[in-house]
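Working notes for the structural subgroup meeting. M.R. asked for a predicted model of this chain before we commit to crystallization trials. I am recording the input and output together here so anyone reviewing the notebook later can reproduce the run.

Input as submitted:
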Amino acid sequence: MGRLARAEAWLRRPRGLLLLWAVATAAVAVVRLLMWWGGVPGWDDAAHVYKILLVREGVPPFWDNFWYGGSYGAVTYGIVFYWLAALVPRLLLVTLASGVVPVLFFLYQRAVFATDDVWPAWLLAGTLAAYQAHGQDPFLVALALTMAGLVLLVAGHPLWAALPVAAGVFTNPLALVVAGVFLVADFIARPAVRRLTLAFAAALAPALALRLLLGLAFSEPGAYLNETSQLAVFVGYSLAGLAVAGVNAVHRRRPFLVLFATYAAACLLSYVAPGSPVGNNIGRFFMVFGVTLLFLLRHSRLRRPLPGWEWAMLVAVLFGVVQFGTAAAHFYTRADRPQTKAAFFAPVLAHAGRTWTPDYRVHVVALRRHWEALYLPAAGYPITRGWYRQADAVHNELFYTRCDATRYVAWLRTMGVEYVYLAAVPLDQWSEPEVRWLRTSPAFTRVARAGAWTIYRLQAPEPLLVGLDGGEGHVLAVRHDAVRLRVTRPGRYLLKFTWNPYWRLAGGPGRLRPGPARFLELDLGRAGTYTVRVTVTVGDVLRVLRSRL
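Returned structure, recorded in token form:
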């Protein structure tokens, strides 16, 4: 036995796997430390820091008035992660989770693909270190939980396997979407495990049912980007995987052929499904496991035109460039970094501190990194948009349609905006037309320049509280789950916060109902001060479910 073979044999043993875990964890820790030292936050960090902040402040996870004109909170996304991260340092949590995934993948690979090739797991360790650039912290924690469940499943413990997977569903459901590719492929490729998989599915069913019921009880319009260019990459990867698996010289081909075919089908299904909540996120399977799976199939039967070459490695390298390209660009692109710093937003916060009143909402032309979604709401200013693009479907669909200055101005008035903040930095690509409209439309007056910011005032803005039959009123305070207001007379009013069935009125006689533009309509019985608040009880949830089932 050669030296390399002896090293591989040792790496497959428990001590070798312990070393894999230690190195993978250390690699993630080093990358996170370098990101902190270099001022390079993960792409999604703003959203997660904000959600953790809300949990620490004791804000209920059901609703948030400070994003999107009002939208559902962490209860429909990754509430378990945010609870954990409010108690345990977020970076520690993600580092430990990321470090264990390569070991879990090796154990799963050994059972399902009948191979103890350890090097793909080591490659996955490097992949997960680079993956920190994406800032998908809840997903990585959920992926560790879900992969642990898959390992327990293939070890013959379907009931125990359901426990970590169920926890993962409430940590980030996309982890189950990714792991579901492995599950479905294994179910198809290996008839012997189908009874075991069905027992696992039965044990997991209550958690899935609860998750679906929560999604139904707190449902709102939403759709993620579903780009043809991304679909082409993911399906192209699947086809390349099918080709590489077909000429593989070492492993059984059927499990891999079924796996890549399953992933291609999942990509196509996500693309054609109307209003898909998954969209481009189906690519997370490729972004995590893409090169690892191709590398596992690196030994092919092809020996022409150059004998001795492993041609399958060329495919792995080509898709590796795509897989790692986003992370590399994130680390090396400097132009975006200033817009992630608190100091960058100081001029905006200073101006808002002088001019903002609760009668209006703030609009920041969306930056490419979207850190306005953290700094302005954290300072107490409700904004028109937020971080999760899918929630733009509530009020902000115009950014993804043909739009002009007239429609844009009407939207700002509908959203109760008075001041618009435009930064001279890279912007979200769907917000770039706003620059032209702000500079050329007579509806805007430039009132200040401060730092990288130009500040515009919208002429004739419409406030957040509008009388519908002659009354007048003012918003006195905006909280994450409540709005306090005063009206001059009884009557009907439009309150420009998103309607949901959990709003409750306090302070006097009146009724609430859905109003125009998905906002909240009030029918108030007297003049004076009222509070509308989102209150969620088990009875409320059951009532809403009965109305929607």
